[in-house]
Amino acid sequence: MTICYTIISWLLVFFYWLLIAGITFRILIKRHSVPFAMTWLLIIYIIPLLGIIAYLSFGELYLGKCRSKRVRSIGPSITLLLKNVHSIQNICSKKNSDIAQPLFQLCQNRQGISGIKGNQLQLLTNSNDTLRTVVRDVQKACHNIEMVFYIWQPGGQADEVAEALIAAAQRGVHCRLLLDSAGSVEFFRTEWPNMMRSAGIDVVEALPVSILKIFLRRMDLRQHRKVVLIDNYIAYTGSMNLVDPRFFKQHTRVGQWVDLMARMEGPIATTMGIIYSSDWEMETGKRILPPPPNNSFTLLQKKNDHTILVIASGPGFPENMIHQAILTAIFSARKKLIITTPYLIPSEDLLHAICIASHRGVEVNIIIPRHNDSFLVRWASRAFFSELLEAGVKIYQFEGGLLHSKSILVDGQLSLVGTVNLDMRSLWLNFEITLVIDNHEFGSELACIQNHYISQSCLLDAQRWLDRAYWQRIVERLFYFFSPFL
User: Fold this and answer.
1) pLDDT of amino acid 139
2) What is the rounded CA–CA span in Å between residue 418 and residue 435?
3) 311: confidence class by pLDDT, cuts 50, 70, 90
4) What is the CATH number of the domain that holds 248?
5) Do 370 and 481 belong together in one domain?
6) Which of 17, 48, 356, 464 lies at a 20 to 30 A Cα distance from 408?
7) pLDDT for res 322
C-alpha cells in the first residue's frame, strides 16, 4: 500500500512538472514580448494551477475553430475587394505630406489600403448631437443600414436610435446590427433584440461569452469597433458607444462620458463596408458584399477633398497593425504631439517612442481623465507617469467627466481618430478601427477640440508627483505587474 501511494505521488509530481514545463515551453515559442512572457511565467510559477488555467483562458489569441476557419477564408476576398476599390481612377491618394507619408506607405504595404480621396468629414463632439444626427440619417436611409458597437445600452436617446432603426426595417431597409456580447450584455437582457428581430432587423451577438467555452476561445477578445454605415455612402466611427451618457455608468461617479465621433460621406464608406462585411462573415458565416464604388464619388472632390485612410485591426487583419501605425505617427512628429486616451497603459515600445519624441524637442501633451471607471487601469496607468514626466511630457488630467475620446494629432497635420485606447487590449487584441486624416484644416479643428479638453484639465505637477506617498508607489508597481493584461 505504501509503495502504491509513493508511486502515485511521484507520478502526480512528474505530471505536475511536465505540465509546468509544457506551458513554459509554449509561452517561450510564441515569441511574446518579454514583459508579457515574464509576467505569465511568474504567475504560473507562483500560483501554478490557477496560473495555467488563466494562461489557457487568456494567454493566447484564438477565436475558436469555426471563427478561425472563417477568418482564413475571408482574407483573400477582402484583399480582392480592396483592390477593386483602388482600381477606381482618381479615388486613391498618390501624394501625402512629409509627415503622413511614412504612415500611409506602411498601411499601403501591409493592408493594401491607401488613402481615399473625395470625402466630406465632420467631427461630432457632443453625444446628444451625435445621436440626433444618427437618427436623422437612419430616418433618411433607403437601402441598407449596418451597425457594430461594443456597447449598446438602452435608455434615453439610445432608444430613439432603436426606434428609428425598427421604422427603417419596417419600410424595407435592410438593417444589420452586430453587438459585442460582453459589452452589450444589458441590451440582450431586454426586449429590444426580440422587437428588432420581429421588425426584420438582423441582430447578431458577437463573440458570445460562455463559461462552457472558456478553453475553446479566448473570452476577453472583444468586438470593440463603433461603426454606422448607411446606404454605402454615409459612415460614422469614433469613440462613442451607442449609449445616452446621461444614463450610462452613473454608478461609477466619474461624470458623463466625453466622446469624439466622425461623420463621413463619400467613397470611404465602401472601404469601411468591406471591414464590416469581414466582421459579419466571421460571426455568422454569411457573406455580404458591399456594392463597388463608382466614378460618381470623385465628384465630391470639387466640394471637399478630405483624404481618409482606414486602419482595421484584430484577427484576420495584419498583425500589430495599429501598434505599428501609432509608432510610425509618433516618430514622424517634429514639433508637437497631442494624445487623448481614456486608458494609458502603453507598450514599452510606445512608452519609449513618446519619451524619445519629447527628448527630440517635440512638445508632447497627453490628456487623460482624472477619474476612471476601471480601478485596475487607474492605478496601473500611474506607474508610467514618472518616466513620462522625467522626459518632459505634459500630462493633463481632464476633470469634466470621463474623457473617452481617442485621438492623436501630429504637428497639426496628421490626425488619428477612432476606437483605439493606448492599452494592451486595443493594441494587440480587440477588433478596432482608426481613421487617419492628412489635412491641416482638419488638424486645426481637432486641435481646437483637444485644447478645449486641456482647458478643463489640471496639469500634473512633476515635483508634486515625485513627493507622493510611498504606499502609492507600491500600489502602482503592483498593478503595473498586471499591465500586459489590461
Assistant:
1) 97
2) 6
3) very high
4) 3.30.870.10
5) yes
6) 464
7) 93
